[in-house]
Amino acid sequence: MSITTSAKRLFETNATQVCEVRLKRNGGLQFWAQIVSTVAQDADGAPLCRAVLSDITERKKSQAIVAEEELRALSRKMVLSQEEELRCLCREMILFLEGERKKAVPRASRFTRPENYFHST
Q1: Are 8 and 48 members of one domain?
Q2: pLDDT in tens, 41-75
Q3: 23: containing domain
Q4: Are 49 and 82 contained in the same domain?
Q5: Is residue 110 part of a domain?
Q6: Last residue of a domain, which of 15, 37, 55?
Q7: Mean pLDDT lowest among 8-22, 59-73, 74-88, 106-120
Q8: CA gap 114, 69 in Å, rounded
Q9: What is the SS3 assignment for 14?
Q10: What is the DSSP string of 5-62?
């Protein structure tokens, strides 16, 4: 949510608004900030916005590291799963081919006797 949207909602709803944004310091260095805004009143009772800005750069870095580790772990699980699936398919294929070979190739004992090769007429 943008800061502008958050400010509009703040005054429309009077509910505390929280947003995370990327900002630049004077030197040009970027950082992550969390802005928590609430509605208050000035001395005359007019509504005003009170905001607290917190640097959350380290938290964002930690979240990115955790997300990357989770992605790596998930990727490893996926590779292991694919390898296991491949092994299963190969075993099934070998069993199938062995069965087909047994059907197609007669047993050697049939060919041990010459009469099985030649028929006399």
Answers
A1: yes
A2: 999 999 899 999 999 999 999 999 999 999 999 99
A3: 3-55
A4: no
A5: no
A6: 55
A7: 106-120
A8: 70
A9: coil
A10: HHHHHHHHH---EEEEEEEE-TTS-EEEEEEEEEEEE-TTS-EEEEEEEEE-HHHHHH
